[in-house]
Amino acid sequence: MPEPGLGVDHPLSRAQRLGIAAVFVLGAMAISGGAFILSGIYNIGASRDHWSVTNFLITILRDRSISVAAGSVPIPDLDDPDLYLLGQEHFRGACTGCHGLPGGQINPVYQNMLPQPPDLTGAFHDYSANEIFWIVYNGLKYTGMPAWPADGRTDEVWSVVAFLQRLHLEGPGSYALGDEATALTNCARCHGDEQTGPISNLVPDLDGLSEPYLARALDEYRSELRASGIMEPLAHQMSEAELQRLAGYYAALPPPQPQTGFPAADIELGRQIATAGLPEQRVPACDSCHTGTNPQTPRLQAQSARYMATQLDLWRHEGYRDVTAQGSLMAHAVRGLNESQALAVSRYYASQPVPEAAP
Amino acid sequence: MKVLLRLAPLLLVPGLAGCSTMQSALHPTGAEAERINTLFWVMTVGGGVILLLVCVLTVIALFGSPGQRQRLAGETMVKGLGIVFPVIVLSVLLLYGFLVLRAGAAPEEEEGGLRVAITGEMWWWRVSYTDAEGNAVETANELHLPVGQPVTLELRSADVIHSFWAPNLAGKLDMIPGRTNTMTVIANEPGITRGQCAEFCGGAHAFMSFHVVAQPPEEFEAWLAAEAAPASEPDAEHLARGQQLFLANGCGGCHAVRGTEADGIIGPDLTHVGARHSLAAATLPNTAEAFAHFIVNNQHIKPENRMPAYGIFTEAELADLAAYLESLV
To answer: What residues of B are in contact with residue A282 (Cβ under 8 Å)?
Structure first.
């Protein structure tokens, strides 16, 4: 083996010379990089746009990253009004602040963000449904776009995607300008009020539910014990007095009419589960708790079937609604239900009229 | 060496476990257990005698005079003690063992005798009596027997293999899913003894025990009549509150209390739970504190058992509920 060191008698090999040169080059890069960073000559301000080469590279990186990460997810029916009407209301409350009204000017504060939040009328023009789903669910680094507030609630994200598709197909004029925002209109634009019902079957009808239960639900959203990317931001803004007042408002409204149009087989299976349970699967009868006498256990009759089925689905998966004491009891009770049984019992209760209040 | 000799008495400590007679196969109170006990002592004493004999022969072989050792090595001794003696002793023991355990014979069944269906669940015992009129009386975790009368136990399982073992009463018999194993037991004297599940059935297997209460026949009939009756109505305000809590919080979805709307069959029948000698399959004493403890902390007491932990009650509500359950005698 040749000895290290310069000299005519013991020359360095080619590989050794390359290695020494590489060390010098890397050292120079590290020193100049360190000098650049520590000198502070880079303008980090948002007031000045990126260099064109930076913009070019960032755009390619962003779009390739989104395209690969979005992959292929099963896309639900985006023309479902239950989805896009809910998405519209969430958009109104959570997105227009930064993105502005579709077709309109965005707030001067957000105009000076880098990158500026784009007008979302063009969202479906630039990206496909699964890519938009990924962006709304995961957010984007190095921008102000946040990830979805509730980890795992992908069902809620599709409502926003459905709305954006409708916005793209029908134009910005299709976006309904809502009423002036107050504490009550913030609820009523999804849940309805004394004149109207909920805008979508994915939204529960709150009319006539017990006040302690409604207050507890809002409190759980506010404390992030109950996962929903749509309800958590709304509950966060409520003061305690507001929360009690809104719960009292909906509790005082007359209860709704039952839903119709479900297959008789589902209603029959649902009735069996509700009154007798499924002992082999260790599912107790729903009626054994949901008697109507306990204010902490909500009335199920005439509630939206699609909403109840979604909630049962959340209870069958860990971490969404099983964190609280009552929630963990429900999670235990419905663990043995499969998807079609959960749908059947939801449809049964949706089709039942609200029982007369005990005198 | 001296230390070892001083510690030698500790070897006797495990033997003290046999001093408790409540769950002991060495303290038989049932007909089959008596036969097994006799077999055990015959084999132990007989084995002990033979061990002594072998030890003596070994001592002779090691330290005896040449004449003794010669005789020991002789053909008569080898054939006699090595072939004839073992063949006779083992054959006799084998036949005796077969007779005691009635291997291959069908269990004796008396027509019209009391039948009790015991189903092993994870991790409790569902016990169902058929009374004189043919009605089923559901209870759980305790077996009552009339002294001196043969009782047929029908052993089933609702999920995995369990094994019914009341050592004072009889030997073990497995409860196999999809199959009914029948066993006839006769309690010879009144008293309370304890049994256990004897086949590993999951995490809380060690907490799946039960009590056997043998009573004189008149007492047994009175007990069965009381057990068949519906639950006693609450006669105090806090007990009525406890009953309301029981019915309003879903307890009736799994537990039955005959005489109320609670009719669940997923968990043990609680109609007369206050009268039992223990709770949670002989894991806890039967007191209001134990009820409250189990309602809130059952996942710590019996991890992974099928009842959820109820964290929704205030201290006052829990006290009322526990008092109500204790009052269900």
So the answer is: 266, 306
Average pLDDT of chain A to the nearest whole number: 93
Looking at the DSSP bridge assignments, the partners of residue B209 are B196
Query: How confident is residue B91, by pLDDT bands cut at 50, 70 and 90?
Result: very high
Q: What type of residue sits at position A156?
A: E
Write the pLDDT tens digit of every residue in B240-277. Answer: 999 999 999 999 999 999 999 999 999 999 999 999 99
| pLDDT interval class at B36 (50, 70, 90) | confident
Residue A187 contacts residue A111 (beta carbons within 8 Å): no
CA atoms within 13 A on the CB side of A337: 31
Residues 6+ apart with CB under 8 A from A331: A315, A316, A318, A321, A322
| Radius of gyration (C-alpha) of chain B in whole angstroms | 26
pLDDT of residue B104: 47
User: Taking phi first (over 0 means left), then psi (-120 to 50 degrees means alpha), and beta for anything else, what does residue A117 get?
Assistant: beta
Q: Indicate yes or no: CB of B266 within 8 angstroms of CB of A329.
A: no
Contact yes or no for A329 and B310 at CB 8 A: yes
Residues of chain A below pLDDT 70:
1-9, 357-359
Query: Contact A284/B311, CB-based, under 8 Å?
Result: no
- Our measurement of the distance from residue B180's CA atom to the centroid of its chain's CA atoms, rounded to an integer in Å, reads 18
Residue B231 corresponds to which amino acid?
A: A
Q: Residue B252: which of A288, A297, A332 has the nearest Cβ?
A: A288
* C-alpha span between B77 and B82 (Å, rounded): 7
Q: What is the pLDDT of residues A36-47, one digit of tens each?
A: 999 999 999 999
Which pTM does this prediction carry? 0.86
Position B54 pLDDT exceeds 90: yes
CA distance B286 to B280: 9
DSSP letter assigned to residue B271:
T
Q: Locate all alpha helices (DSSP H) within chain A, ordered by sequence.
A: 14-39, 52-70, 81-94, 96-99, 108-111, 123-126, 129-138, 154-170, 183-191, 211-222, 231-236, 240-252, 264-276, 305-315, 325-334, 339-350
What is the DSSP secondary structure assignment for residue A278, as one 8-state letter? Answer: B
Structure tokens at A192: 């309805």
The order of strands in the sheet holding B181-186 is B136-140, B124-130, B114-121, B150-157, B181-186
At A92, which amino acid appears?
A: R
In angstroms, the Cα distances linking B164 to B115, B170, B181, B266 are: 16, 10, 10, 20
Residue among A329, A334, A322 nearest A277 (CA): A334
Q: At A188, phi and psi to the nearest 5?
A: -65, -25
Could you identify the residue written with the tokens 């002989």?
B282
Report d(CA A171, CA A163) in Å as an integer. 11
In angstroms, what CA-CA distances link A182 with A175, A179, A253, B154?
Answer: 19, 9, 19, 69
A280, closest residue in chain B (CA to CA): B266
pLDDT digits (tens, 9 = 90+) for B101-155: 775 445 555 666 789 999 999 999 999 998 767 778 999 999 999 999 999 999 9
- pLDDT at A359 (0 to 100): 45
**A285 to chain B: closest CA residue:** B253
Please tell me the distance from the alpha carbon of residue A240 to that of residue A243, in angstroms, as a whole number.
5
**Under 8 Å CB-to-CB from B182, ≥6 apart: which residues?**
B107, B109, B152, B153, B154, B155
Question: Which residues on adjacent β-strands are paired with residue B162?
Answer: B175
Q: Which residue of B has its CA nearest to A273?
A: B253
Interface of B with A in 50-89 (CB under 8 A): none
Using CA atoms, how far apart are residues A120 and B109, in angstroms rounded to an integer?
82
Strands B124-130 and B136-140, sheet pairing: antiparallel
